[in-house]
Design brief:
about 130 residues; rod-shaped
Length: about 130
């Protein structure tokens, strides 16, 4: 009588191949999860920053253009992850045109503190009227 042993387990090679396949799948899932978090942060900036910039520009337009100066700040407790930076400068035009001497370039930059590389920039021009004597 011949006795045959039954192979009820897995071989080492089968276990190693299944672990390799599982590892590849987990790396792909982890990569997509990481990319998803990155895209969510970028989407948050692209939706919130324009609204904050619009509110800041509305404040700037209410001010007298002659009192407009460079400054910076944050948006308080409502938006603690965002800060703004305002730069006011003369418009770099060449020539002696009188109207161009009264233009100011206003650059507004909204920074997302979590990811400093993500910024939202906005530029506008303000006319500064002459001071009447």
């Amino acid at each position: 009588m011949l006795w045959h042993a039954k192979n009820n387990g897995f071989t080492l090679l089968e276990v190693m191949v299944s672990i390799a396949i599982l590892s590849i799948a987990l790396v792909a899932v982890y990569g997509s999860q990481s990319q998803s978090v990155s895209l969510a942060s970028e989407a948050k900036l692209k939706t919130t920053a324009p609204l904050l910039a619009q509110a800041k520009i509305a404040e700037i337009e209410e001010e007298d253009a002659r009192n407009l100066t460079s400054s910076s700040g944050d948006f308080g407790e409502d938006f603690p992850d965002y800060r703004w930076e305002l730069t006011v400068s003369d418009v770099p035009f060449f020539g002696e045109q009188e109207a161009l001497k009264h233009l100011r370039q206003v650059d507004l930059v909204i920074h997302y503190i979590e990811w400093e590389k993500h910024v939202y920039q906005l530029r506008l021009f303000r006319f500064v009227p002459k001071i009447k004597n």
